[in-house]
Amino acid sequence: MVTHTDSPRTLRVAVVEDQPLFRKMLSVLLDATDGLVVAGEYASAAEASQGLDARAVDVALLDLRLGDGDGLALGRDLRRRNPSLGVLVLSASDSMHVLLEIPRHEAGGWGYLSKTSSLSAPALVFAIRSVAEGRAVLDPAIRAQREVRRQSPLAQLSARQREVLALVADGLTNSAIAAQLGISPRSVDGHLNAAYAGLGLQASPDRNPRVEAVRAYLAHTVPGPS
Amino acid sequence: MSDLAELDPRGEQRVMLVTTVLVAGILSIYTSTQSVLVLGVFSHALSGSTPSQPLELTVRTAVNLATVAVVAAAASAVRPQRFRAAGRALSVCALAVGGALVRGVLQAATGIYALPDSGSRHALLVELLTSSCLLALSLGVGLLFVGVARQARRGDLLRLAAQQRVVQLLREVQDEELRVRRELAETIHGSVQGTFVVIEAQLHRLAQEAADPSGAELRMLAAQLGTLREGELRRMSAELYPVDLDRGPDAALRALLARLPSWVAVTDEASAVLADLALSQEAQVLIIRVVEDGLSNALRHGHARAIRVVAAADDHALTVTVSDDGDGPEDGASWSGLARLGRRAEAIGGTLRLAAGRDGGVLTLVLPR
C-alpha cells in the first residue's frame, strides 16, 4: 500500500482495484488532478477491509468485481464505518443496476462509473466530487444510452421531466441543469417537483427525493441496444 | 455384512411367525382330519360308547391349534432367527419338543388319551415324537423363509446403496461443474473485461499521439474491443453462469430483467420473495435458467410485449411463474430447452410446466422446500 499526504481542502481518495495496471492508471490520473489525492491503494477486498481507515478518506473508488470479494459489500462496510464517505463503484461492463441493491436510506453518496469513463479525468473528477457531496450519480456516458421501460412510471412523465431527471442522475445540480437546458432554475425545480409527484416520491427525514429519483431512473430504464 | 446378521428384525420376526403358524396350522388340521375321518380313530374317554366324528374332530383340531399358538408365542420370545446355525438347531429342537409336550398334556387333559391305559401311553409317546418332528419341520420352514427374505433385503440394500452412491457422485459432478462455470464467468466478468478496458485505454492514448489515418484505425480498434467486451464477453460469461447470481437469486433475476428490451413492460413480483429464501445453489441456478428460458421463449416465439414474474413460497414449496401477453405456446412446438430444465427440476423433486394462460404462455416451476 502506498500512502500519500493530503491537505485540508483536498479530497482524499482510496482506490481498491485488483488489476495492478488499471490501479496504477487511476492513481496517476488522480494524483495529476488538482484537489484530489490518493490516500491509499488496495489490491483486494481483504486488504482494504483491514488496511483502509474509512474515516481518513472522503471517497472510495471500488472495483465492483474484486478477485476476493464484492465491491458493493465492501462499500457498504466502509460506509458503516464512515457514514459520510462517498463511494464510487467502477465496473468493466454495464452493471449499473447493482446500485439498486443499496438500501434506499444508504443510497446517497453512491455513484457508478464504467472503467472506460473512469480513465477520463473530467468524468472521474466530477463523479468523485458528486459522491463526496452526498449525491447519487450514474455514469453519464452509459446513462445517455439507456431507454425508458414501456409502461413504467418513468414512461408516464413528460419528455422534459425525464430530461431533467436524467441530468439529476448524471449528478448535476439544479443550476447546472438550468444552464445546460437553457431554462431557469425555477423551471428546473418545477419539472423536478412534477417528476417526483409522478413517481410518487415524497421528501422525508430519511429519504432524499433527489436520490430516490435517481434510483427510479435506474429501475425504470434499460441499457440501449449495444 | 454377515449373512447371518439380522437386517430387519421386525420384518424377519413377522416372516418367521407367519410361515411357522401357516405350516404348523395346515399340518394340524391335516393330521386331525386324517385321524378322525380317514383312519377312524376315536377316543372312548372323549366320545363315550357312541363315536362322534364332529366332537372328535373339533377337540383334536383345537388341541393341535392351541399347541401351534403356544409354539408361536415361544418362538416369538426366543427368536431362533437371530442365532447362528447351532443356536438355531438347538432352539428349534427345544421349541419343537416343548410344543410336543404341551400337546401331550392337552391331549391327556381333554381325554384324547387315557393315561392309565398302557396302549394310550404308547400312542402318546409316538404322538410326542411325531409332533416334535412336525413342529421342528414347521419352524425349519419358517427359518428357511427368513433366509430368503434376508437375501432379498440384502439385495435391496445393496441396490439402494449403489443408487445413493450414483446420486451422490452425480451431485458432486454437478457441484464441480457449477464451481468451474462460476470461476470462469467471474474471470471473464472481472479480470478479462478489465484487461480489455486497459488495452482500450492504451489504444486511445496511442490514437491521440498518432496522426491519422493510424490514429483513426487505433480508435476503431479500441471501439471494436469495447463492443467485444460489452457484448460477446458478457454473453459468454452469462452462458457459463447467471450474471450476479453470486449476489443472490434476487440480484440475478433483476440483472436478467434489466436486460429485457425497453419495449417490454416488466412486472417483477419475484425478486423480493427470492431475497428472503435460503435456496441451494442448484435451485438458484435452475430458477434463473427457467426464467431466462421463459423470457426468451415469450419474446422469440410468443411475441410478448409484457412479462410478469411472480414467486410465492410456503412451508412446502416455492413456485415461480413467468407469464406473458404473447401468442402462447405453439401446439407441437419442440421445447428442448424446457425439457432439459424440466429434467433438472425433477432431479431435485420439482416440476416445470408450460401452459397457455389467459393471454399468452405461463411457465410454472415448483420446487420443494
From TrEMBL, chain A:
InterPro entries: CheY-like_superfamily, NreC/VraR/RcsB-like_REC, Sig_transdc_resp-reg_C-effctor, Sig_transdc_resp-reg_receiver, Tscrpt_reg_LuxR_C, WalR-like
Sequence ranges assigned to domain Response regulatory in this UniProt record: 12-130
Domain HTH luxR-type: residue ranges: 150-221
Positions bearing 4-aspartylphosphate: D63
Statement: the UniProt record of this protein carries the keyword DNA-binding: yes
Keywords, comma-separated and alphabetical: DNA-binding, Phosphoprotein, Transcription, Transcription regulation
Upper taxonomic lineage: Bacteria, Bacillati, Actinomycetota, Actinomycetes, Micrococcales
CDD domains cross-referenced by the UniProt entry: LuxR_C_like, REC_NarL-like
Pfam families on file: GerE, Response_reg
Protein's UniProt name: Response regulator transcription factor
